[in-house]
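[recover] target loaded
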């Protein structure tokens, strides 16, 4: 099948998913709300392509076309859509309803949500059988494995098309069941929250928390450096999704995370989070 994908949201993940796709020769229509964000994303995609190629993580030549737009109507003839807008359930519901009204029936609609159950989002689309979630890792052009979430209403044909799409993107899918945070974020977001709480209590510095996870447990990156990479704004949004849907206080974002987001210290993307990153991206 000749894929042509629409990517909704040109932030951290949308831009990087676009890099992964065009780097594998799959054309992309990238949508966001304004031209400034799209211009920044085009620049990031160029830099990411260069980096991934230097690292041998993407084919060296033969990239596909990247079209950027603010008009959802430009998604009319894509073969699948990957939604990567901000982790706000009401926003995702609105965006998914809009996109499902534009694409042809049978077009796979994939959400890259961190934590919202597929079956909840399925209420917003015209054809719930066309919807599933792929939780790409950050950055998706460097990490091959992805979580694939099949909701109770996801169709067999959608799962088969997703397998085909992941093959075109050279990613390895791990299929898991539906529910808040799926597998990875049910565990990871709670760990990040607890790590931040330890710093808040003055029991350890961010450096010490991460050194313990990296040195003692062999994790490649500790929870707070991971949180800075994800974006602390996204961490707080994901924790709220998990807390609202489980009632589990372990997911209630701690004061330190909330304060950092209120101060605009989102991590790598703004230049400061738990660590200093030498300027915004
Ligand atoms: N950051 C990560 O490490 C990571 C990893 C896996 C999954 N995710 C998930 O991916 C999604 C995107 O996260 P992100 O970190 O890229 O967020 P981000 O804040 O960097 O980007 C979100 C983008 O969505 C755009 N947007 C908002 N409303 C829109 C609309 N109506 N139409 C089109 N675009 C719109 C925003 O302008 C912004 O550019 C979230 O669901 C998040 O939970 C994030």
């Amino acid at each position: 099948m000749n894929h042509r994908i629409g990517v909704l949201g040109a932030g951290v993940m949308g831009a990087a998913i676009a890099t992964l796709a065009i780097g594998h020769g799959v054309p992309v229509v990238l949508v966001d709300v304004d031209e400034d964000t799209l211009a920044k994303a085009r620049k990031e995609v160029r830099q990411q392509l260069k980096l991934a190629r230097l690292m041998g993580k993407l084919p060296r030549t033969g990239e596909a076309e990247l079209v950027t737009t603010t008009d959802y109507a430009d998604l009319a003839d894509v073969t699948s859509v990957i939604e990567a807008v901000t982790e706000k359930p009401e926003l995702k519901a609105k965006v998914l309803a809009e996109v499902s009204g534009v694409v042809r029936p049978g077009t796979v609609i994939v959400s890259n949500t961190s934590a919202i159950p597929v079956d909840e989002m399925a209420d917003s689309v015209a054809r719930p059988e066309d919807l599933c979630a792929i939780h790409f890792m950050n950055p998706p052009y460097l990490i091959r494995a992805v979580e694939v979430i099949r909701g109770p209403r996801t169709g067999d044909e959608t799962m088969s098309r997703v397998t085909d799409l992941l093959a075109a993107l050279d990613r390895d899918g791990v299929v898991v069941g539906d529910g808040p945070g799926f597998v990875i974020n049910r565990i990871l977001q709670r760990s990040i929250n607890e790590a931040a709480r330890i710093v808040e209590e003055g029991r350890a510095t961010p450096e010490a928390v991460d050194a313990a996870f990296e040195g003692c447990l062999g994790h490649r990156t500790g929870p707070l450096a991971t949180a800075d990479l994800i974006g602390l704004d996204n961490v707080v949004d994901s924790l709220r999704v998990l807390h609202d849907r489980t009632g589990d206080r372990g997911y209630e974002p701690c004061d330190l995370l909330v304060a950092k987001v209120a101060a605009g210290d989102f991590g790598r993307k703004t230049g400061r989070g738990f660590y200093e990153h030498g300027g915004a991206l």
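[recover] notes: Residues 35-54 form the longest helix (20 residues).
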